[in-house]
Amino acid sequence: FPSHDTMYEEEFGSEASSEWMTAEDERVGDDHRQNDGEVRKLGDSFPSGETRPGQRPNCRCDSIIVPPADY
Length: 71
Prior knowledge:
Largest sheet: 3 strands, antiparallel
Shape: elongated
Distance between the termini: 25 Å
Number of strands: 3
Structural class: alpha+beta
Radius of gyration: 12 Å
Strand content: 15-25%
Strand order of the largest sheet: 2-1-3
Number of helices: 2
């Protein structure tokens, strides 16, 4: 199966981005807290070094796709 990033790139092109969102509570780790609200092109690393939420066990973060401005 293709990754979500690949599917979004096919739909929006290579200019699509992802915004990281935490659960915004005391259980969020410091590394993920620094990612909160950050926007990166699909596949690029966030400040924690991860390219998307959920790459670590028990991660409750999520992301939203930000289409290019001209979409």
